[in-house]
């Protein structure tokens, strides 16, 4: 994304020579409104754009699933570069930059995006497994991963220990967890809130 057509053409040609498909935008508005291909990618972003500052665009799209950003600018300064990198930019290149430096930054950004996409896909599978649990099994899961004993978790839900053990086995099976430690890690990835801690005394102990 650059307001200089010559820069856009040069970058498109460079990327094409490396077997990469590029889509050029002259403004932030064009980028935001465009349909993006669902593939590993990166956003090469100029700091100075006709409709918005590139750093402001970075902040605005931060909450969504956007590709990693490589900044390019003809007016670079240390505060801007620090601000961009702190917000997750892969690199901040000042014009004129070498093709090798740009391609290294692009390769790093695409690798990062590929990893993020893989992580999102894995979490999506885990989330579907969680949704396949029954309402009672979803109540059992956080109690189990919090470290409560079976009798403590059963007392918490007002069910028998035998029934709790059945639900626990079902949770382990449906979540494809090989062990309790594995189930704890899966729950952490799903950001399931843990509201209990293991107790050695009290009701049901």
From TrEMBL:
- Chain ranges of the HTH luxR-type domain: 126-191
User: Matching SMART domains, A to Z?
Assistant: HTH_LUXR, REC
Gene Ontology molecular function: DNA binding
One Gene Ontology term from the biological process aspect of the record: regulation of DNA-templated transcription
Q: Which InterPro entries match?
A: CheY-like_superfamily (IPR011006), Sig_transdc_resp-reg_C-effctor (IPR016032), Sig_transdc_resp-reg_receiver (IPR001789), Tscrpt_reg_LuxR_C (IPR000792), WH-like_DNA-bd_sf (IPR036388)
Q: Which residues form the Response regulatory domain?
A: 1-110
Domain of life here?
Bacteria
**4-aspartylphosphate modification sites?**
46
Annotated Pfam families = GerE, Response_reg
* PROSITE patterns, alphabetized: HTH_LUXR_2, RESPONSE_REGULATORY
Q: Which UniProt keywords apply?
A: DNA-binding, Phosphoprotein, Transcription, Transcription regulation
Q: What is this protein called?
A: FixJ family two-component response regulator
What is the originating organism of this protein?
A: Rhizobium giardinii
Q: Print the organism lineage.
A: Bacteria, Pseudomonadati, Pseudomonadota, Alphaproteobacteria, Hyphomicrobiales
